[in-house]
Amino acid sequence: MFVGPVFTREAITAPRRPQFFVARVLLVATLLGLALTAWQVFVGAGGGVAQLAGPGDLARFGRAVFELLTPLVLTVAVLFSALFSAAAVSQEKSRGTLVLLLLTDLSNSELVLGRLLASLLTVLVATLAVVPFLLTLALLGGIDHQQVAWAIAVTAAAALAAGSLGSTLALWREKTFQALALTAIGLVLWLALGEVVASGVLGEQLLGLTAGDVAARISPWQALTAAMEPRYGRPPALFGIEQPAATGADSAAWFVGVGFALAGLLNLAAVALVRVWNPSRELRSNATATEAALAPREEVVAAVISPPDPADVVVGKARGQSAAVHHAGGKSRAVWDNPVLWREVRTWAYGKKVLVVKAAYVAIFVVCAVATVQALGRPANGRSAIPPAAIPMAPLLVVSLVLVNALSVTSLTGERDGKSLDLLLTTDLSPKELILGKLGGAFWNAREMILLPVGLCCYLGWVGALTGWELAVLLACLIVMTVFSAVLGLHAAMIYNSSRKAIGVSVGTLLFLFLGVSTCMRMMLALSNTFDGQLASFLGFIVGGGLALFVALAWRNPSTAMALASFSAPFATFYAIVSFLLGSYSLVGLATVGTFGFATASMLVPALSEFDIATGSQPSRED
C-alpha cells in the first residue's frame, strides 16, 4: 500500500473485528430509524400516504429529512475522526510502541499517514455506507444527486482535517489528556470562527465576498448548509449581464479544497517534526539523568562512605510511617493520607502544558460569555423555543463536560498504559481511596471548566435573565452532569483494558447523548407543531439508545441498576426535551437530576466496594 505497513496491517486486520461492521450498520440503522420517526411525525402516527397532497409533499419530506440528517452525519464524522486519531496516537505513545516504530526503517510519512488513515478507516467506511441511504432519499424528490455528492465531499474533507488535527496534536503532546483537550478546543474554535464570520461581526463584505460565502469556505457546518441549498438553474441576465449560478456548490467546492489543504499542512508539519517531538523531552531528560548517575567508581564509593546529613533530609510520612525508610536523598514533601489524591492535586500529573489547555478553554469561555451577554435582550427567532442566550452557552457546556470526562478517563488509562496500575493494585490502597482520589483529581485539575460555567449561570441570575428557581434548577443539572461525566470516564476506563476503546466509549457516550438531544429537538421543531403521540414515534429510537448504552457500559458486568439506568436515560432525555420545549423547567431538572444521578450511583457504588479493573495483562483482540 502507498501509505506503508501501518495502514496495511489495519486494513487487513480490521475486517476481522466485529465492531468494524457494527459501526456502519448502527450508523445507517440509526439514520433509517430517524427517517421513519420523521415520517411518523410528518404524516401522523395513524396516517399514511393518503394524507400527502401529492408528489410535492413527498419531495418536501425528502428535503426536510436530508437537511435534518446530513448535519448529524457530518458531526459524527468530524468528532469521531478527531477522537479516534488522537486516541490511537496517544495510546501508541503511552504504551511506548511509538518509540519502537521510530527505531524501524519506516519513513516519517509512512508512520504519520499510515497511523492517521488506519485510525480513520472505520469513520471513512461508515461515511461511504451512508451514500446509498442519501441516494434513496433523493428518490423522494426535493434533492438531487449533486447535493448528495457535495454533502459527502464536505463530510469527507472535514473528517480528514479533523483527524489530521487530532493526530498532529497527539504526536506533539506527551499526555493523552492534553491531546484530547486541545483537539476538542481546536474543533470548537474552528466552528466558532465560521459562525462569527457568518454573523457579520467582522463585516458584511470580506475579501470581495459576502460574510456568508467566506464562512462557507472555512467552516464545515456553513459549507454543508451551502451544499444543501436548492439550485434552480442559472438566473436570468440582468441589464444584459450574465449572472452567476447559485454559489452553494462553489462554496462547498472551496471548502473541500480548504479542508484537504488544511489536512495536508497539518500532516506535513507532523511528518517533518515527528522525530523532533518524539521521544519527548521527558524521556530525554530521564536518559540524561541516568547517564549522569553512572559516575566513576570512586565517586560512588565516596557517596556511600559519606552519606547525606540526616538533618538535611526530610522524608514524607504517610499512613504513620516512620522517617527511617529507604529514600534517595534530598527533601521530599509530606504526603496526604490519600496518596492518589495528593499526587493528582499537588503534582503536575498531567504535565505542565495543561496550562495551554486551560488558556485555550478560557478563550472559548470569553467568546461564549460575550455572545451570551449580547443575546440577553434578543427575542427568539420564529418557531425556535430555545432562548437566544442559551445558544452560545450550549457549546461551552458541552466542551466543559467533554473535557472533564476526558480528564477522568485518561487519569486511569494513563496509569494502565504506564504499567503503574498493577503496582497501585498491589499496595494497601482501598478502592475508595483510588476512585475518590482520581475523581477529586479530575475535579481539581478541571476546576476552570467547572467553575467558569457556574459563574456565568450565576451572572445570568444576578442580571435577572433567570429567576431564582430557574438558576437553582440549572445549577443542579450542571453539577449532576459534571459528576456523571467524571464517573462515566472512570467507569469506562475500568471495564475496558484498551485505552483507545475506553476513551472512545466514554467520550462517545456523552456525544451520543448530546447528539440525540439536538437531533430530537430539531425533528420536533421542524416536522410537527404539536407533541401529541410523539412518544410512540420515538419509542424505537429510545429503546435502541437504551440498548446501546447497556452494551457499552454494562455488558461486561451487567447489573439490574445499570440496566435500569441505561434504558431510562433515553426516555428521561426525551421527557426532558419535551418539558423544555413546553417551558416546564422544573420537570427538566427533575428528569435530569433523577436519571443521571441514579446512573452515577449505579457506576460509582460498585467501584467503591471492590477492585474490578481490567488491567490489560492478557492480550485482547481489540488492540
Automatic annotation (TrEMBL):
GO cellular component, one term: membrane
GO molecular function terms noted in the UniProt entry: ABC-type transporter activity
Presence of keyword RNA-binding: no
Keyword terms, alphabetized: Membrane, Transmembrane, Transmembrane helix
Domain of life of the organism encoding this protein: Bacteria
TM ranges: 21-42, 68-89, 116-143, 149-172, 179-202, 252-274, 355-377, 389-409, 449-465, 471-490, 502-524, 536-555, 562-582, 588-608
Protein's UniProt name: ABC-2 family transporter protein
